[in-house]
Amino acid sequence: MNQMPKTKVLKFLPYFVYALMLVAAAELGPLPDSQKNPAPAQTALAEAGQPQVLGESTTTIPAVRGDAPVPTTTPQTAPISEPDTSAISAKSFLVFDLATGQNLLEKNGSTKLHIASLTKLMTALVAYNSDDLNQSFTIGPKDTFDVAPVLGLRQGDSVSALDIFNAMLIGSNNDAALALADFTASSTGRDFVDLMNRQAQTLGMADSNFSNPLGFDNGDNYSTAEDLKILISATEKLSAFTDLGRRQSYEFSGQLKNYSTRATNKLLANHPDLQAIKTGYTPYSLGAMATKVNVDGHDIVIIVLGSEDREGDTLRLKDEVFKNLDEK
Fold first, then answer.
1. Angle at 199 between CA 198 and CA 201, to 5 degrees
2. What band does 85 get if pLDDT is binned at 50, 70 and 90?
3. Helices 119-130, 225-235: crossing angle, 10 deg rounding
4. Quick one: CATH architecture of 92-327?
5. How far is the C-alpha of 99 from the C-alpha of 273, rounded, in Å?
6. 3-state DSSP assignment of residue 283
7. What is the pTM of this model?
8. I want to staple 117 with a disulfide (CB 3.0 to 4.6 A). Which of 27, 185, 215, 227 is the partner?
């Protein structure tokens, strides 16, 4: 058998060595990542779990699993602007969905404040729960009150409890509130203020206390926006309250005199989408207002307390609710 000359063996030796290396590499499998030649910057960022800035978007390169495609962008949630309440003068406000109870906007909702004539909502609810409003009663000497706003009730006149109830809620008349409280106290044999506080406890208004049926400023007459939410949620279930929401005036007759009052909510005339719930004002407590508006089929209640501009604050909060719902 002829042997290959040594010179020819040496000539082909490099090719044999290279072939053996290829076989060994195939058997050992791919090189580990640490021995590969990585792309300089982006691969280092990906291994460190750091986001990469690509133009104006930010993305993280995920690990490849199976044959799934590698996403190059991360879906972004459409931005929703934060509500702008910087122009709201109220010390406290609360905006909530009447059907669900969900709070939409809030500031100092649990802060105890004087609530002025929003107190008369509790006066009305106690009278509604305690009396037959279809009854008539006689105006007594204590009911002829002269601190505005007043109906000018005449002592000895016979009036319907329902007329007094309606006039108090629409026109916030102080003499009407006193007359209704006296009528309820007489018919139940109970102290009216005690009835107010018992009703508050029953509803769960833990941060409220009442000392008079009018809402006059007193250290013992206070509530919070959150507690008023509870009270309003209760009254808005009753047609005796909701039927008055668009009334801009109210007239009725007693046996001795005709009476009339105008709505204290000045927004009703120019804003047909609004319904009045109750207003209040004293120089100390400032403006208070509870108003209802329908937004996309939802009844939204807006409460402002301690406001220097209760009407303006109400409209600004309403606009914020509309704007945010439109963005969603």
1. 65
2. confident
3. 40
4. 3-Layer(aba) Sandwich (3.40)
5. 17
6. coil
7. 0.74
8. 215
